[in-house]
Structures are given as C-alpha cells and as structure tokens.
Amino acid sequence: MTQRYRLHGRVWIEGPEGTFLGYGRVVLLERIREHGSITAAARSMEMSYRHAWKLVDSMNRQSRCPVVEKSTGGRGGGGAVLTEAGERAIACFWSAYRDFKAFIDERTQKLDLS
Amino acid sequence: MTQRYRLHGRVWIEGPEGTFLGYGRVVLLERIREHGSITAAARSMEMSYRHAWKLVDSMNRQSRCPVVEKSTGGRGGGGAVLTEAGERAIACFWSAYRDFKAFIDERTQKLDLS
DNA sequence: TTGCGTTATGTTCCGCTGTGCATTACGCTT
DNA sequence: AAGCGTAATGCACAGCGGAACATAACGCAA
Predict the structure, then answer these.
(1) Is the CB of residue A89 less than 8 Å from the CB of residue A97?
(2) Which helix (DSSP H) or strand (DSSP E) does residue B94 occupy?
(3) Strand pairing partners for A98?
(4) Do the Cβ atoms of A11 and B9 come within 8 Å?
C-alpha cells in the first residue's frame, strides 16, 4: 500500500565555516573527477560555474588537504582534478548518506498517524 | 575533544501536498495550544500572522482530521485550539525527531575524515 | 604573437519566501 | 448599535541565494 505520510530529510557535514559536504557538493566532486574541469562539471549538472567554483573553494578552505587541485592556463586552458583527500571525502559522505537513507526508510514505517 | 566535522540534518513529514509537519510547524502547534490563538502564537515566535495562518491551513488540508480548530468572532474575537489529532501529530513528529537526533549524534562519532 | 579554454572574480538580474500593511468578516459584549 | 480582537485574504515590498553576464589572468600550442 502507498502510505499517506512519509518521513523526509537532508543531511550534510559541517566544518569550520558551515557546510562542508552535502549531496550537491559531493556530486559536484564526482563530476569534476569525471570531466576534469569545474566548467564541464558544472555544465553537466546544470549549475552555474560561479556557484560551482564557490562550492569547490568552500570545500578546499575547510579541508586540511584540498579536495580539488586546480590549474590555470596551459594545454586545454587548465583544469581541476580530484585529490586523494577528495576521494575520501566522497566516500565518507556517501557512507553517512546511505545510513541516513536507511534510517529514513525504516523510521517511515514506524510513523503513527491516522 | 571538539571535532572538526559534524553531521547535521533536518527531517520533516511529507503529506499529499508537500511538507506536512516540520520543526517550525510543530512548535507553532504547541504555541497555539499554549496561547489559544494563531495571532498570539505567531507573535510569540516572531512569525508573521500571514505565514502562521498559511502553515496551519496547510496542515489542516493535509490531515484527515484538522489539527487546529478555528473560530471567528465572539468573546475575545475568536481563537484557535489544538485538536486531539493535533496532539497526536505533535507526538508523532517529536518521536521521529528524537530518533533522528540520536542517529545524527551517533553517526557523527563514526565520521572518518582526517 | 595570437588564439584558445580554463580558472578567478565582480556586478547585475531574477525568483522565491516571508514580512508588513490594509481590509473584510465574524460574533460576543456592552 | 457600536466596539473589541480574532480569523481570513489580497497586495506591495524586502532579503537572499543562485543565475546570467562581463572581464581579466594564465599558460600552452600553433
């Protein structure tokens, strides 16, 4: 049966300056790994470059080791690559996110509303 | 020790039209129970009456039985009282909210970021 | 030296959410 | 009949986050 009410929610990881990792930020990191540049990553998820750059900057500032290494100029104009710290950040968030999803699904079953 | 990163999050209960119960909505219901009117409840939490009324209306539309019964005119100009269904809604949300808080605290301990 | 594509950064614009204000309806009290 | 404090509802305005646009800096290639 389809139930009338469902529990929903969001989670993110906070760092020294506020949000450090969230769903969108982590997807952005994955797109950077895939495309090799902030520009292409942003375009692939229909996000403005301006916004994507700010997110990457925020993550880099709050991480002990940068999650993305950027280069300007040169062959292809430059680019951005995910670091090992970036890989760990992605894994850390998805792990918590999976647990959160499981919690939501399970807790929705226990909702007690007539 | 104070850790560098913490898991944060929000939860709410969705109904047929979108958000049905969230933190602010449930506090509003409690204030209505306490003050006996939407006007006083809204003022007590520094929310505009306009907004508070819309939230109550949204909750009433999505609940099988209204969570708040309103009356206009009469002694004192009217007012609003929490129904039994409203009480159950409050209890249902806080119960899920407590479990969520416990999940967040516990999961924060397991965060694995250098 | 010119061209290219990217990073970097400021400025303006838009859409959404909630506030603030004005007005009406209501029903008890005096 | 007049006054009151509330619910109900429309409309203009403000604040904010992100989008869109415009440049500049950079470094390799041709």
Answers:
(1) no
(2) helix B84-109
(3) none
(4) yes
For residue A109, the distance in angstroms to the closest alpha carbon of chain B comes to: 11
Question: pTM for the complete prediction?
Answer: 0.95
Q: Which nucleotide is nearest to A37 (CA to C1')?
A: C6
**Burial class, A46, CB count within 10 angstroms (exposed 0-12 / middle 13-18 / buried 19+):** exposed
pLDDT in tens, B70-112: 999 999 999 999 999 999 999 999 999 999 999 999 999 999 9
Report residue B1's pLDDT band, with 50, 70 and 90 as the boundaries. Answer: confident
What's chain A look like in SS3? Answer: CCCCCEEEEEEEEEECCEEEECHHHHHHHHHHHHHCCHHHHHHHCCCCHHHHHHHHHHHHHHCCCCCEEEEECCHHHEEEEECHHHHHHHHHHHHHHHHHHHHHHHHHHCCCCC
Distance between CA atoms of A74 and A53, rounded to whole angstroms?
19
Q: Is A24 exposed, middle or buried (0-12, 13-18, 19+ CB in 10 A)?
A: middle
Structure tokens that stand for A22 in this block? 């969230």
Interface of A with B in 33-72 (CB under 8 A): 64-65
Confidence of residue B2 (pLDDT cuts 50, 70, 90): confident
User: Strand A68-72 vs strand A78-82: parallel, antiparallel, or unpaired?
Assistant: antiparallel
Report the distance separating Cα B41 and Cα B82, nearest Å: 12
Q: In what order do the strands lie in the sheet with B18-21?
A: A18-21, A6-15, B6-15, B18-21
